[in-house]
Task: inverse folding
């Protein structure tokens, strides 16, 4: 019994810990996004600056560049790790490609120099270096594209939505105006009496009325969303489904008909 209680308490502690972490990330997401963009620009500058030069892999300058690049990559990763597994996977792959693209030109320097000390096959040496530079560019920009895609998924997923995608259910009701009790005065039809919308319903519909947020009713030939406590002109009618006969309206829960 005590072991089960301890396990349950530990689980609640972990949940609270993760909740606090998420709240911190959410509260500072603007700062993280700004640091992300700055880090990406700095990586661009570093890549384009060191690409024309051969850096010795065992030199102090190369160690400093590694520390700087790893720091910038960690900053970018920090802004993505809390946005879901898809962002994490795409972002990590992109960051690995960026790191490879920056340091790839410095790795073969010893092999190339030792192989062509006598000056022979200099043309092949140049071709190999050129291929390495092209590969470095490819890795770097492919990694940047993947990081950019992960950022879009994390912060602006609506950019990836197709134009003719199915609309959310709630948008169906946006085209209908809402009926207010003073609307009849605005329409200039004061002579027609108004009735409580409940008088147009059956006893069963009145009983189920608590499930509705709005009722779809025909008022003077125009569909309106009417609240359950509103008064509408006596000539109005409530829209009903042809098959089930149920009232059509915007439910407080999911669905057309409730």
Result:
């Amino acid at each position: 019994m005590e072991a089960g209680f301890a396990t349950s308490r530990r689980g609640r502690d972990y949940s609270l810990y993760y909740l606090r972490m998420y709240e911190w990330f959410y509260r500072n997401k603007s700062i993280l996004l700004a640091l992300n963009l700055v880090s990406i620009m700095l990586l661009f500058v570093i890549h384009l600056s060191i690409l024309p030069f051969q850096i010795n892999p065992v030199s102090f300058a190369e160690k400093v560049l590694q520390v700087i690049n790893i720091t910038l990559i960690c900053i970018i990763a920090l802004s993505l790790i809390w946005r879901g597994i898809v962002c994490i996977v795409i972002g990590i792959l992109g960051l690995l490609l960026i790191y490879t693209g920056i340091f790839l030109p410095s790795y073969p320097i010893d092999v190339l120099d030792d192989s062509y000390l006598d000056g022979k096959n200099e043309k092949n040496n140049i071709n190999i270096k050129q291929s390495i530079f092209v590969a470095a560019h490819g890795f770097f920009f492919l990694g940047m594209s993947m990081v950019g895609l992960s950022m879009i998924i994390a912060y602006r997923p609506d950019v990836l939505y197709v134009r003719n995608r199915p609309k959310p259910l709630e948008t169906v009701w946006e085209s209908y105006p809402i009926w207010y009790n003073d609307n009849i005065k605005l329409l200039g039809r004061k002579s027609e009496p108004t009735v409580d919308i409940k008088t147009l319903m059956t006893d069963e519909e009145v009983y189920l009325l608590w499930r509705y947020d709005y009722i779809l009713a025909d008022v003077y030939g125009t569909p309106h969303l009417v609240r359950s406590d509103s008064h509408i002109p006596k000539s109005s009618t409530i829209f009903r489904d042809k098959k089930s006969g149920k009232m059509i309206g915007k439910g407080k829960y999911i669905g057309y008909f409730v």
Summary: The radius of gyration is 33 Å. Residues 87 and 153 are 7 Å apart (CA to CA). DSSP finds eight helices and six strands in the chain.
